[in-house]
Structures are given as C-alpha cells and as structure tokens.
Amino acid sequence: MTMLSNPRAPRRRRDRATTRSRRDKRLPMEVFKRLVQDDTIHRVSLDEYQAKVKDVYRGPKGAMLATASLLSLHLPLTERLFRTRKFNLAGMTSILDVGSGAGQLAQHLIRYGDPGTQITCIDLSQPMLRRARNRLKGGDPAYVAADLTALPFADDSFDGITCGYVLEHLPQPLDGLAELARVLRSGGRMFLLVTEDSFSGAWTSRFWCCRTHNRKELMRLCESLNLRWKKELWFTQLHRVFHAGGICVEIEKA
C-alpha cells in the first residue's frame, strides 16, 4: 500500500524553523535588557523606592531634565503632537497633569488648551513642583504634591489627563491606572507616555531608576479599567518604524 505524504508537513517544519529563528534572535536582546534595566523597584520596599526616586529627581538629573528633553528632541516632538492636534485639547475645561516634573507637558497644556482651562499639576517631589512653578508662564496652574496611587481628588474631577513617564515608577501599574480611571470623567481623554520594554527603554530604565512596560500587556490592563486605547501616537514615522520614543497613546474612558 502506498503511503500518502502530507504536503503540509514541509511548510509546518519551515514555520517552526522560522519561529525558532525569531526566538533565537530575540534572546540576546532579552538578556541585554535584563542586564541593563534597573531592578530597584522590585528589590526594595515601596517607601525605599520612592525615596530613591525623589533623590534622583531632586539631584543633578532632575535639574537637567528639561534641558535633556530639549536636546533629545523629546520636548519639541511632544509639543508638535499638541500643536497639530494629534492629541486635541479643545473642549477640555479641567486637565490633570500627572508627574509634572519640570513642567514639560504642562507648558503645552497652557499654550494649546482652551482659554480658562483649569490645569492641576501633581508630582511626588516638591522640588520638581517648585521647578515647574518657576518655569511655567501663564495659565495659573494649581500645584499639588501627591502620589498617583492615592490622588486627593473626587471621582470624575477631570475631563483631560496627561501622564508622562510616571507609570514606570509604580511596582503595580494597576494601582495608578485605577486612580486615573477614577478621577477621569466618562468620555474624558488621557495622553499617556510610558517607557517601553525596548532597547532604548532599557537604558532609560537604568538612567531614571524605573521599570519598563510591554505595549500589549499595558493595553489589556487599561481595557480592564474601561480605558480604551483610542489611537497610538508616534513622534515621527521613524519612531513608528523602530518603535522608539516609548509608548505614546490617546486613551478614552468608556
């Protein structure tokens, strides 16, 4: 009796070989990221970690944060997202800027938000809030020292939120996202920037003592809180091709 060969077998073997090849190529990168990424957030208590982060940001690195953002083109590229209305501030009457730092995002809210929009800047670090207060002109924002995991605001307080590179300083991002979802009104929108688990993200983690996030896992986490990813934003086409610049997304609360 003649045995019929399976014509799909060679293809399956090729597919398995391709999968193994891709996995083998990813392995050195995964090893590199584990070696480079800072793991302080997983090794110490929350109080110890927050004290470490405060030291980082009130020290020389924090002082040069605004300058570093400008030299890396991060500041002008982010500004363009607001100027071209890729993230549209029109119609927002109250905006919370989380982790204001030296005021990098808050200055765009002042410049491109509607006249009379109430802007509230929060940060864990008082020195960073002082830097933002001294740097920002106009808009008359409110400045509040606060922890993202325990925001001192009522439910549905804001129709807009900007959160730039803050979630990576939380051991459990769900705690922070849940608070953002709580204070954001239904239909409100959020501009979220997060360090991604990429080559450049690993170096960012080392420099700023933070963790990184996987894009798909973060999206699932947001959706579990009725925070729908409306669209992914990219600084340039080059950033899109190389997945550079971190995770930048517009989110809408259902």
Report what the structure shows:
This protein is α/β, with parallel strands linked by helices and 254 residues long. The chain has one domain: Vaccinia Virus protein VP39 (Rossmann fold, 3-Layer(aba) Sandwich), CATH 3.40.50. Strands 3-2-1-4-5-7-6 form a seven-stranded mixed sheet, with helices on both faces. Helix 1 runs parallel beside helix 10. The N and C termini lie far apart (63 Å). The N terminus is likely disordered.
Q: In angstroms, what is the radius of gyration?
A: 21 Å
- Order of helical and strand elements: HHHHHHEHEHEEHEHHEHE
What distance lies between the first and last C-alpha atoms, to the nearest angstrom? 63 Å
In total, the number of domains comes to: 1
Shape: globular
Which sheet architecture does the biggest sheet show?
7 strands, mixed
Number of strands: 7
Biggest sheet: strand arrangement: 3-2-1-4-5-7-6
The residue fraction in helices comes out at 40-55%
Low-pLDDT residue intervals, each spanning 5 or more residues: 1-5
SS summary, helix count: 12
Strand proportion, as a percent range, falls in: 15-25%
* CATH architecture field: 3-Layer(aba) Sandwich
> CATH superfamily assignment?
Vaccinia Virus protein VP39
CATH topology: Rossmann fold
- The CATH class name reads Alpha Beta
Which oligomeric state applies?
Answer: single chain
Helix and strand composition category: alpha/beta
Mean pLDDT, rounded to whole units?
A: 86
